[in-house]
Each structure stands twice: as C-alpha cells, then as structure tokens.
C-alpha cells in the first residue's frame, strides 16, 4: 500500500519513466551483490538511498534536474556492480 502511494505521488513529481527507473535500477544494481532475496532487498534500499542523496547533491551542485541526476547515479551504481561481478567471475571468487 505504501509503495502504491509513493509511486502515485512520485509520478506527478518526476514522471513515469523516471519513477520506473528509480524503482528498477537500484534492484538491478543490488542483484550482483547478493545471494538471497533478503540481501538483495537490503542492498537495493542502500543503493536507492545513496543514489537519492548523491543525485540530489549533484543536482544542487551542477544545477541539473533532480530526478535524472538520481537515475544517473543509480545507473553508475548498476555499472559498477556489474563490473564487480564480471571481475569476480574472472578471478574465480
């Protein structure tokens, strides 16, 4: 119920595409870091919060829109976690 309310309010604020990205990208970034769904959920929350804080800071610093800045930070987190996954599989860890 809370997620539905947040999504409904956020759609008016940042738009459909950005809110979809804000919901999906942190979870996708958390997947390579976790082994269980619970770990993935906690990592996704951490990545989402970090993306929001850093994205808002970047938006303030560089005078850019907040929504796209948050999504860009989340996308960088997604790239970093997938690079980490590739490096782990190549090294055999």
List keywords for this structure.
mainly alpha, single chain, 93 residues, 86% helix
Quick recap:
This protein is mainly alpha-helical.
Mean of the pLDDT scores? Answer: 91
The residue fraction in helices comes out at: over 70%
**Distance separating the two termini:** 40 Å
- The backbone outline, from C-alpha atoms, is globular
Subcellular location: Cell membrane
Transmembrane segments: 6-29, 41-60, 66-87
Membrane topology: Multi-pass membrane protein
Function: Involved in the high-affinity zinc uptake transport system.
Task: Please describe what this structure looks like.
The termini are far apart. This protein is mostly helical and 93 residues long. The protein has four helices and no strands. It is globular. The model has no long low-confidence stretch (mean pLDDT 91).
Describe how the helices and strands are arranged:
Blueprint: H1 2-14, H2 16-30, H3 37-62, H4 66-91
Helix pairs in contact: 1-2, 2-3, 2-4, 3-4
């Amino acid at each position: 119920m809370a997620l539905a309310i947040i999504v409904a309010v956020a759609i008016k604020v940042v738009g459909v595409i950005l809110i979809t990205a804000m919901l999906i990208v942190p979870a996708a970034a958390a997947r390579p870091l976790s082994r269980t769904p619970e770990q993935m959920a906690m990592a996704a929350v951490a990545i989402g919060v970090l993306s929001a804080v850093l994205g808002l800071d970047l938006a303030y610093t560089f005078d850019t829109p907040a929504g796209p800045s948050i999504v860009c930070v989340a996308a960088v987190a997604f790239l970093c976690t997938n690079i980490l996954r590739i490096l782990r599989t190549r090294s055999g860890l």
